[in-house]
Amino acid sequence: MKKLFLTTALFGCIALMTSCGGNVNSLLGGTKYPADQADSYAKAVEVLKEKVDTTKFKIFAIRFNEKEELSNELSSMSLDMVNADNYAFRQAYYMDGRVGEMNDYSTSVNEVDFAKIKGISLSKIDPAAIGRQIEEAKQIIPEGHTFKSISVYQINEVLPKQSSILNRGKEIGAQEAEFKICFTEDGKETETSGGQVTHLYYEGNIIVNPDGSITPEEE
After folding, report:
1. Cα–Cα distance, 91 to 216 (Å, whole number)
2. CA dist 191 to 20, 175, 201, Å?
3. C-alpha 145: how far from its chain's center?
4. Which residue has the higher pLDDT, 61 or 195?
5. Across the chain, what does the average pLDDT equal?
6. Which of 49, 45, 119, 124 is nearest to 82 (CA)?
7. Does 64 score more than 90 pLDDT?
8. pLDDT at residue 171 is higher than 60
9. pLDDT band at 195, cuts 50/70/90?
10. DSSP string spanning the chain?
């Protein structure tokens, strides 16, 4: 069994609070979409199909984002797109139907050419496969640790770099996917210092292979 590459992360909240974001969010009501469930990604794709005009724009990157650290709540999707005039931009779409403002996408590293980009098809995103991949990743969490959340699941089209040397070994136009899984060490979830509770967790990066199987990034 391959060992996950672990990145230690942390976030803090004042000890007088009963929790960080989780209970606060529950008081606000609204539908919750667990970031480790296939149905949540199916809903996210449904939202994107309704909001994104793919006859005018090509999508070259999608990130499905967790709302808050360790909340395991899928709340938004960030898309990188380009139109026929080669204007590239990034825009956020929310699970409740809201749409964020367009932000310019920096082309200082990647070449963005509408005619050459294949584009990520929303219809070809398989929520059931995403759910299976996440469940498989849960099984390789180290013993003595507990799953907490999926912080991001992303799909990218491989774009050519401005510097040709950076394109070596790259399959331009191919689609790559990966996601980050967060978990805590049992009995060591928090530290307290100076009246503040710091929540400790680990983050492992999971690569999705072309056949849909997963490979954890190793140390």
Report:
1. 29
2. 14, 40, 11
3. 21
4. 61
5. 86
6. 119
7. yes
8. yes
9. confident
10. -PPPPEEEEEEEEETTSS-SHHHHHHHH-----BTT-HHHHHHHHHHHHHH--TTTEEEEEEEEEESSTT--BEEEEEEEEEETT--EEEEEEETTS-B---EEPP-SSB---TTT-----GGG--HHHHHHHHHHHHTTSPTTEEEEEEEEEEEEE-PPBSSGGGGTT--TT-EEEEEEEEEEETT-SEEEETTEEEEEEEEEEEEEPTTS-EEEPP-
Residue type, 190: T
pLDDT confidence of residue 211: 96
Question: Which residues, 6+ apart, have CB-to-CB distance to 178 below 8 Å?
Answer: 153, 154, 205, 206, 207, 208
Query: 118 falls in which pLDDT band (50, 70, 90)?
Result: very high
Q: What HEC string does 2-19 produce?
A: CCCCEEEEEEEEECCCCC
Give the Cα separation of 161 and 10 in Å (integer). Answer: 33
Instruction: Give 8: exposed, middle or buried? Use CB within 10 Å, 0-12, 13-18, 19+.
Output: exposed
